Amino acid sequence: MATFIPFIVYFVVFSTFFSAISSKFSEQSPITMKDMEKKTSLHFYFHDIPGGKNQTSTAIARPINMTAAAKSFGITFMADDMLREGPEPTSKLVGRAQGIYGFASQQNAVLLMVMNFAFVDGIYNGSSLSILGRNAVFDNVREMPVVGGSGVFRLARGYALAKTFSFNLNTGVAVVEYNVSVVHF
């Protein structure tokens, strides 16, 4: 019984101490991950030039046996496209779209986009966003997920809305308007 009494005293003293500490911490409002998150909206134009003097993308894979029904299926491009403030080719460069896109449907013009939007200007200089998703190019507006980011956009998640501004059927040159919304830390 004599060894049991010091144990009870020890238990009472430490439980009182820890309950005082925990009540002090519970009085303070905790900082949650939601409190640290930021929401950013971006607007820019993607300029894709698949040939010619200022080429920014090139075919890196073509299927060997292409049927008439699936004439684009499997064609894959590597891109280092410009991201500009406006649709004009002379507007301010804000970044580069670097990655791969390929025709992923046998029936429609649907691309699989695996892109990093690497920003080179302003507060986002050196930061990037990663896009991975389906791009049905002839839909009026396409939504693709933002699956990550770096720099200012560390742990980013969100979506990118793409809308074709112009497309030249003869040259393949496309200008696509992007509205991107992301949550990040």
From TrEMBL:
Keyword Ribonucleoprotein in record: no
Query: Where is this protein found?
Result: Secreted, Extracellular space, Apoplast
Q: Which UniProt keywords apply?
A: Apoplast, Secreted, Signal
Q: Which InterPro entries match?
A: Allene_oxi_cyc_Dirigent, Dirigent
Q: Quote the cellular component terms of the Gene Ontology held in the record.
A: apoplast
The signal peptide stretch is 1-23
Q: Which GO terms describe its biological process?
A: phenylpropanoid biosynthetic process
> What broad class describes the main subcellular location of this protein?
secreted
Pfam assignment, any one: Dirigent
On assembly, the entry states: Homodimer.
Family, similarity comment: Belongs to the plant dirigent protein family.
Describe the task this protein carries out: Dirigent proteins impart stereoselectivity on the phenoxy radical-coupling reaction, yielding optically active lignans from two molecules of coniferyl alcohol in the biosynthesis of lignans, flavonolignans, and alkaloids and thus plays a central role in plant secondary metabolism.
Name of the protein in its database record: Dirigent protein
